[in-house]
Write a structure and sequence with these properties.
Layout (H helix, E strand, L loop, with lengths): L5 H23 L3 H40 L11 H5 L3
Helix pairs in contact: 1-2
């Protein structure tokens, strides 16, 4: 099973938004119903933001990995494993 960044980033962002909204509302002296309502709205908004961030980050990492793979492709059969091994003289 492979890990997907969206399955970790989006819930973390939404819970962080919820916690910040609860703390801010409670410290401002708001009544419980409005604080919880705003915290739930913040939770939904931050879930969408977290999903978008994870999606963009996932694509950026995939594109970088593809570019790196193409740049370091060993077409001559030299058996190069990594740039570090090449730098060390392997």
């Amino acid at each position: 099973m492979t890990a997907r960044p969206i399955s970790a980033v989006a819930p973390c962002c939404s819970l962080a938004g919820f916690a910040v909204a609860i703390v801010a509302g409670a410290s401002a002296g708001g009544d419980a119903a409005s604080v919880i309502g705003r915290a739930l709205a913040s939770m939904l908004a931050m879930f969408a933001v977290g999903t978008a961030l994870a999606s963009v980050a996932s694509r950026v990492v995939a594109e970088h990995a593809d570019t790196y793979q193409r740049a370091n492709d060993d077409t001559k059969g030299g058996g190069r494993v990594s740039p570090r091994a090449e730098a060390e003289g392997a």
